[in-house]
Amino acid sequence: MSETLQATDDVEASSEASAEATAEPQSQSKTEDLLVQEGDIAGDYLERLLDLLDYDGDIDLDVESGRAIVSIDGGEDLAKLVGPRGNVLESLQELTRLAVQQETGVRSRLMLDIAQWRAGRRAELADMGRTTAEKVAASGERARLHPMTPFERKVVHDAVATVAGVHSESEGEEPQRRVIIFPKP
How many CB atoms lie within 10 A of CB 178? Predict the structure, then answer.
């Protein structure tokens, strides 16, 4: 009788392990499918916007780091959709996220880039974050950076994390929230 119970327990444990092993890839696949769906909805929304404005642009959809990435490139008028310091781009990203949420019922974290502005800004901010962090490490004096968007602050925090002897924090309220870089004690 004890052998029968042991065999039953082994079969149940094997079934549970098998279910868990297949659940993870299915869950990951389901998440990626949702992100692809978000990208498709966002692409359709942005294509209608470009048509209304009579702007040319190629829309590229991708999934990276657990979020949908939508890029618009190729048109002459696209700089107008970026605006000063990316203000128009930030607004369009939020509107696009809302359009996706309205259709899916799920809050989207999609990232929108227009005319590769974010890619260029990311490189510029990463360089500034590293350089400032190196100065803080050498001088021992903290540095307060100018106010930034959440996207910009994340890029700076990531860059600061690559420099030994410093750490960074954000302080303040939007839209005046900024990064402070501190030397480690």
Answer: 16
Instruction: Note the pLDDT of residue 4.
Output: 39
Report how far residue 140's alpha carbon sits from residue 165's, in angstroms, rounded to the nearest whole number.
Answer: 9
- Pair 114, 144: CB distance under 8 Å: no
User: What is the C-alpha end-to-end distance of the chain, expressed in Å?
Assistant: 65
Mean pLDDT computed over 157-175: 96
CA distances from 34 to 1, 41, 106, 108, 156 (A): 48, 10, 10, 10, 29
111-114, strands of its sheet edge to edge? 58-64, 67-73, 111-114
How far is residue 70 CA from its own chain's centroid? Answer: 11
**pLDDT for the residue numbered 75:** 78
| CA–CA separation, 15 and 20 (whole Å) | 9
Listing DSSP states for 86-104 in one string gives: GHHHHHHHHHHHHHHHHHH
Say whether pLDDT at 24 is over 80. Answer: no
**68, 76, 110, 115: which is closest to 93 by C-alpha?**
110
